[in-house]
């Protein structure tokens, strides 16, 4: 590959990432946003957008995959910045925030015919991320050994389902229920 080809490929990747970020924000505002609206907000031509994402469904699914991968990739950084149990709490809070911030994306994703496929495709990697967090917590003795990552993911699913009258109440409820779950996961005597 020549230097020019490498620059073109890097530019294309930057364009793709930029379009994904703009699309995520736009879908958060409205799950019915058009591709033309997204292209205009991203400052790219419709041809550039369609070159990367040939259909609205392709863009919706790419945004979902991108968000999930970003969360999975953050596990090591969260573990490096916090003790394992706090990393567990921090990561699941970030997951919940991501789900809440993408109400429009959820609406758009719901309409995507390949939704079940992409959710199934990403689930294993999310379960793997949860497993990494649990192993770190087991290693420092903060949770009991042998917890199934799939079960913990199911338990923590309350975070993105909790509703509230105000954000403050919602966050308080998140903390209380997270404490209930985490206390249930702890080793005896901790």
Note the main sheet: none
**What's the mean pLDDT score?**
83
Q: Taking Cα atoms only, what radius of gyration do you get, to the nearest Å?
A: 19 Å
Structural classification:
mainly alpha
Shape: elongated
Could you walk me through the main structural features you see in this protein, from its secondary elements to its overall organization?
It contains ten helices and no strands. The protein is mainly alpha-helical and 190 residues long. The chain folds into two domains: 1-54, Orthogonal Bundle (Arc Repressor Mutant, subunit A); 56-190, Orthogonal Bundle (Tetracycline Repressor, domain 2), CATH 1.10.357.10. The radius of gyration is 19 Å and the shape is elongated.
Write the layout of secondary structure elements.
Blueprint (H helix, E strand, L loop, with lengths): L2 H27 L5 H8 L3 H7 L3 H18 L1 H7 L2 H18 L1 H8 L4 H25 L9 H8 L10 H19 L5
Summary, kept brief:
By secondary structure, this protein is mainly alpha-helical. It has helices at residues 3-29, 35-42, 46-52, 56-73, 75-81, 84-101, 103-110, 115-139, 149-156, 167-185. Helix 1 (3-29) crosses helix 2 (35-42), helix 1 (3-29) packs across helix 7 and helix 4 runs parallel beside helix 8.
List key phrases describing it.
mainly alpha, Arc Repressor Mutant, subunit A, Tetracycline Repressor, domain 2, 76% helix
